[in-house]
Design goal:
Layout lengths: L5 H9 L2 H11 L11 H19 L4 H17 L5 H14 L6 H16 L2 H8 L29 H43 L10 H45 L14 H6 L3 H11 L1
Length: 291
Amino acid sequence: MALLTPQGVKEVFQFQKPKGREHLRRLLNWEAFDELRDARRSILLDTIYDSVIFAVGKGFPWVEVVQVVKFTEELLKETKGCSITEAVTILGNKLRDYQGQFSTAHLLALCDYFHNTFIRHYRLYQYVLGQDQEVNLTVAHLEVCAPPQPLPLAEGTDREVWHHEQQLAELRTAEVQKRTNMLLLKETLSLEQAHMLQKAFGGQGPHQTLRREVLERLVSEAIHIQIECLQELLQYEIQVTFDILDLRLQRKTMSLNAPLPFPPLPGNPGREDTHQKPNKGNKGKKAKAKK
């Protein structure tokens, strides 16, 4: 209590509550403590801090505010473990002991304050402050990842424009895929054709003399194999060509209906403005017609 001065309690009142409570703890010469793990001491500090706020709010001089803090601290210690009847007696005795420290009005205000707070909730005070409490506290250290720094808005793209660009990109990708599939089919048919021809001619020896009928059959079979491969390839190329033309038509249609950027680029008025601006020549013709 040696550090508790009128100037000190004035500073406690002027600070915001967290800083004011910490300053009051130092003035009371209390050691630093963990607010979560030592809830009892935290509640005691809150009670004393509230008494400072009460006294200042009631217009107590700073000297008397110091006495209010002393009064509160002594009352909490002396009533520990007492019954409510004993607590009321102790409060009355302390008010008589301090009657020379306060004016009559302030003494009555102090009496009302402790009756309406401490005595009214006395059982709760005794339960929290008068016996040890079992505290189950779990502390988890979580890493919070901050979101990435967003790019400047000037580098952003309007949602409609971005969606339109994505659709065009999908059409271009589909066209490339069609062409790639056609090249793969050409290679596959070429290998298949070579395999079928090798199988057809595989039964003939390298120096074997072929009869006319066998030669005609082999030539006919080779031509048939080539025609089948070419027919399949031609059908697929026709289908792929139509698909590619359809994809290009979709891209052309989408390009003509592309959304306008926002904000509009300089010198690029909106479609509505373009259609609504009257032609100067037409205005002149209309004026002559009216005359």
